[in-house]
TrEMBL record:
Cross-referenced InterPro entries: CoaB-like_sf (IPR035929), CoaBC (IPR005252), DNA/pantothenate-metab_flavo_C (IPR007085), Flavin_trans-like (IPR036551), Flavoprotein (IPR003382)
Family, similarity comment: In the N-terminal section; belongs to the HFCD (homo-oligomeric flavin containing Cys decarboxylase) superfamily.
Native species: Methylorubrum suomiense
Keyword set includes Hydrolase: no
Keywords for the protein's UniProt record, in alphabetical order: Decarboxylase, Flavoprotein, FMN, Ligase, Lyase, Magnesium, Metal-binding, Multifunctional enzyme
A Pfam family it matches: Flavoprotein
Domain named Flavoprotein: residues: 15-184
Domain DNA/pantothenate metabolism flavoprotein C-terminal: 209-419
Protein name per its UniProtKB record: Coenzyme A biosynthesis bifunctional protein CoaBC
Cofactor list: Mg(2+); FMN
Positions of the UniProt region annotated as Phosphopantothenoylcysteine decarboxylase: 1-213
Signal peptide (UniProt feature, chain positions): none
Length: 427
């Protein structure tokens, strides 16, 4: 990508800490340094011990125009610039190539050297460009680590598919330097704030929701047919849980009313577990008052008219038709409260078609203040997936569409938006 000097891109004036892992692809890190500098960034290289088997600190330093850092107990470096400063003194961290070993360290918080220590200490946005043998990449352990890292807010570029050094073919090749630079630009445009882990809530994340009580519903409901069977909606709970986590990180007291899910409880959140829609409504009402209520649960619209106490037997006859009755609409019930309605009530709309039209109708029908709409048709992979493209639909019908983001980032952005809306209402 070339740019005229009059149109500086997102990397202009940015300081990038480039951590170079070991592996044959390390040589491409040198080209990456050059490209990042071409786009106006200042690059500080940090080479792991195994990276130095492939490229020298001198080569990296010459291209970067500043010294290359190398290991944790480098007295000179520690005196001059400690690892904590290295972890803070930049706008973003890029790890290229990120080896399987490096990803495992990052995912588990194991920090035996300078690179891993810096990665553990930093709250800057991180982009990793994995490169490894195809079997190592596809190994469940690496894929687990990848999922963990994404969950921690780490952005990933590549790996690309292609022929590998060991005469194998598949994903594992380091993304090209220009692709890494593009991904870094995209990340810097998307993420201007530090990754807000719950454990940092008290320090680095602006506590925009301090003193507020936030109520979130998440996950599916289960409507019992008999002791072993139930009706349910598809929902992993990931988006609702991410909103709850982000609200806690922003300083709110959070009550998360969750249907049955398999994902962990977010840190710093009071979780009330329920199964049915009626139990969810009761838990929501018990949790009020709240300053903000976000209804992200996929609540069953109907439940069996009757729940059998004993398992229905398969006795050779066609089963009796399942009579259904309507469940209470929790969002509509809370939105319509004359007393104790939260000042900001947000609904979700999962649609498979006519997303915006349906969301506009829904906001009027339900009486909420804002709808977060998304397309859950099979093509999008939103259901159970890690990413989401959302549209914010306001009461006046106006729509704001966000780019495809991971669900944690959607959660953080939604919370920032809700905080601003609450502040505007107060002011
Ligand atoms: O009508 P629909 O289910 O598409 O509406 C989705 C929105 O309404 C979501 O915010 C969901 O949490 C909420 N809802 C609810 N109670 C229901 C059905 C939906 O709170 N019974």
């Amino acid at each position: 990508m070339s740019r005229s000097p009059s149109a500086p891109g997102p990397l202009a004036g940015r300081r990038i800490l480039l951590i170079v892992g070991g592996g044959i692809a390390a040589y491409k890190a040198l080209d990456l340094i050059r490209r990042l500098r071409d786009r106006g960034a200042a690059v500080r290289p940090l080479l792991t011990e195994s990276a130095q088997e492939f490229i020298t600190p001198l080569a990296a330093a010459s291209l970067a125009g500043e010294r290359a850092h190398t290991d944790l107990f480098d007295r000179e470096s520690e005196a001059e610039i400690g690892h904590i400063r290295l972890a803070r003194d930049a706008d973003a961290v890029v790890v290229a190539p990120a080896t399987a070993n490096m990803m495992a360290r990052m995912a588990t918080g194991h920090a035996p050297d300078l690179a891993a220590t810096v990665l553990l200490a930093t709250t800057l946005p991180i982009l990793i460009a994995p490169a490894m043998n195809v079997r190592m990449w596809l190994h469940p352990a690496t894929q687990r680590n990848l999922a963990t890292l994404k969950g921690d807010g780490v952005a990933v570029v590549g790996p690309n598919e292609g022929a590998m050094a060991e005469a194998e073919f598949g994903p594992g090749r380091l993304a090209e330097p220009h692709e890494i630079a593009d991904a870094l630009e995209a990340m810097l445009v998307q993420r201007s704030e530090p990754r807000d882990f719950g454990f940092l809530a008290g320090r680095e994340v602006p506590k925009k929701l301090a003193g507020r009580h936030v109520l979130v519903t998440s996950g599916p409901t289960h409507e019992a047919i008999d002791p072993v069977r139930y009706l349910a909606n598809r929902s992993s709970g990931r988006q609702g849980h991410a909103v709850a986590a982000a609200a806690a990180a922003a300083g709110a007291r959070v009550t998360l009313v969750s249907g049955p899910v398999t994902i962990p409880d977010p840190a710093g959140v009071a979780v009330v577990r329920v199964e049915s829609a009626r139990a969810m409504l009761a838990a929501v009402e018990a949790a009020l008052p709240a300053d903000l209520a976000v209804f992200a649960a996929a609540v069953g619209d109907w439940r069996p008219a009757e729940t059998r106490d004993a398992k229905i037997k398969k006795d050779g006859h066609a089963p009796a038709p399942l009579a259904l009755v309507e469940n209470p609409d929790i969002l509509a019930t809370i939105s319509a409260r004359a007393e104790g309605r939260p000042p900001l009530v947000v609904g979700f709309a999962a649609e498979t078609d006519a997303v915006l039209d349906n969301a506009r109708k829904k906001i009027a029908r339900k009486g909420c203040d804002l709808i977060v709409a998304n397309d859950v048709s099979a093509e999008g992979g939103v259901m159970g997936g890690s990413e989401n493209t959302v549209h914010l639909v306001a009461r006046d019908g106006s729509v704001e569409t966000w780019p495809k983001l991971d669900k944690e980032e959607v959660g953080r952005r939604l919370v920032a938006r809700f905080a601003a809306l609450l502040e505007a209402r107060r002011g």
